[in-house]
Structures are given as C-alpha cells and as structure tokens.
Amino acid sequence: MSDVYAARRDLLRDRCAAAGNAAALITRPANVRYLSGASPLGAVLLVGPTEDMLFCAGAPTGEADEGRLDEHLNASVLGSPGGDPAVAAADLAAALRADSLAVEEHHLTVARHRALRSVAPKLRLADLGTAVEQQRLVKDEEEIACLRIAAEIADQALGELLESILVGRTERHLALELERRLVDHGADGPAFPTSVGTGPHSGRSRHRPSDRRVEEGDFLTVCLGANYRGYRCEIGRTFVIGTSPADWQIELYDLVFTAQRAGREALLPGAAYRDVDHAARSVLDSAGHSEALAPWTGHGVGLEIDEDPQLAPTAMGKLDACVPVTVEPGVHLPGRGGVRIDDTLVVRPEADGGPELLTITTKELLAL
C-alpha cells in the first residue's frame, strides 16, 4: 500500500505544480487518510515539492479507527500541547522557501486560515478546492475489496437480526443490537448511526430510533452500514412484521422496488448523475409521490458515507467505472409509514456485467 499512497500524493503534487502551487496542506480527515493511510485525531498532511510530512498533535496509535500510516511517510509529533499541526505545516513550508501553499478552504475555519497567514506572511495561500475529493471518486480494486467486505458484514448483521423475535422490541434496542453485530463480524464500527423505523416511522430517511415498540402489521425499515478499514457501505431494507402484508403495503413496496431497480439499471459508465436520479424518481413521480421524495436518489461512498457523486435532479457530471454509489429511493406516507430500499453498488461497464451489487440481502417483501 505504501506505493499506492505515494502514487496518490505524486498525482496531487503534479496537479498542484500545474496550478502554480509549490505545496498543498491537507486538513480534511478523509483526505488525509486517503493520501497517507491514516488520519490520527487532528493530523494534517503537507505535500511538498519533493517530500511529504504528516503533522500530528499526538503520536499515531495504529488503532483501526485512524488507519495504518504509510511506513515511508515521515511524521512529526508536536512537542507542545495545544499546538496546531496546520500551523506547524505552514511554518515548515515557509522554511523550505515555498512561495505558495494550496489549502482546503472548504474545510479550514476562518480562524485557522488567519493563523496560517500570521505564521507565514510571505506564503501565498491558494484554494486547493475539492481536488482530493475528485481524486477519490474512482476507487481502485483494493478499495472496492474493502467495501465488498463491509457490505458482507452488514448483510450478515441484518440477516441475523431477521432470525430473531422482533415484536415488542424498541427501535433503539434493535439499532444497538445491529451495531453490536457489525463489530462482532469484524467491522471497525458502524458506518453511520443505524436507523430503525417502525409503523408510522418506517420509510423516513435517516430516522433516529425512538422508544416505539415493534407491533404486528408494522412496516419495519432498517438502514445500516459497516466501516471496514475506513471504507463505508450502506444497506436499507423494509419488511412487514408478523402477518401477511396489507394490500397498500404490497402496492407501495412494489412501487419503490420498481424505482430502485430502475436506478440500479441506470448505473453505467457515462450516465449523467441526474439521469440516474431521474430513472428512479420518475417511477415514484408518476405514481403521485413527488412531495414525499428525498432530494436525492443516492450518493457516493468510500472513506465517507456521503461523498461525491450526488445522484440528484440538478447534479452535474457523469459516472465513471469503479465508482461506488448507493441507490436508495423511498416513500414515506405521514401517519402510515413507508418503504425504503437501499443498496451499495459499484459502477461497471456492460461488458463486465454492469453494476456490481455489493449488498445482497434479499429485497423480497418478507413478513417477519
């Protein structure tokens, strides 16, 4: 992996040089981890003209949640408590006589930006923009392998829950059990706070679990994901509790399933982001549910659970191969509940079989 991280930093270095910047300061944690293998709390990365340095407030621990640092990358631990690694990095860039430094303005606070200017007043600060995020869009096969394992863990945790007795248990209890099962199966932790919605809460996007108990006849919507070596997947399913589903539940579920399938089938290299969104959204729009829809159909996943690209009506850009995304349409009917179906997939060309489905738990409407 050391060669992989070095190659990523070299690509960024070349982009900075082409833009007239001698060095780059990376402060966003996911970007630091992408380029260095680890992101200790508060760490920043200086990508210099010829060599790079990670600046940390404390020594890297090697714990799973911060990753494993590229063994060929030098790390500098600040000697005094309360110091700012970003300021130390800018100070070094100035000492190396760099005339300009590209920074992630979308991540820096105003106060930190001023601190950089004060420590290196002769250093021209430029905006790096989302260069690293754009570099992260297309995943290599090792990254996809991590996402594949994360998806397997999430599938296992969800499958085990479905074999247990659910009636009478609270949303909060089920969410905590799912997160425990994720860790039991090898996850570093949940990819995001697990969502469990029952009855009138079902189908709501990112519902925070409450103390409502599961009842016979409820829709049960579960959305969870595993974090494996920093890479995060997402899966969401909807079930019916106890009895055969009512006609309205079957009708709504079939509609959302059709929309989700249309979105999945649209995931091909060269497809516009908004066209993928339209493929799923138009199914639900035509059934009169336009007011009940989320502002997006899906999003990218990787070192963050919600990263580019965004599959939304106004999103600009086109998909590339090896870009992992979610497709997660849903409909929530106030006071009644609803349906969400959510998968993580990797964009693949038709010659390779089309989109690769990572989350494989059945999408059949089960009565549990």
From TrEMBL:
Keywords: Aminopeptidase, Hydrolase, Protease. SUPFAM superfamilies: Creatinase/aminopeptidase, Creatinase/prolidase N-terminal domain. Residues 187-213 are annotated as: Disordered. Residues 146-348 form the Peptidase M24 domain. InterPro entries: Creatin/AminoP/Spt16_N (IPR029149), Creatinase/aminopeptidase-like (IPR036005), Creatinase_N (IPR000587), Pept_M24 (IPR000994), Peptidase_M24B (IPR050659). Residues 8-138 form the Creatinase N-terminal domain. It holds the Pfam family Peptidase_M24. GO terms for molecular function: aminopeptidase activity. PANTHER family: AMINOPEPTIDASE, CYTOPLASMIC PEPTIDASE PEPQ-RELATED. This is Aminopeptidase P family protein. It comes from Streptomyces virginiae (Streptomyces cinnamonensis).
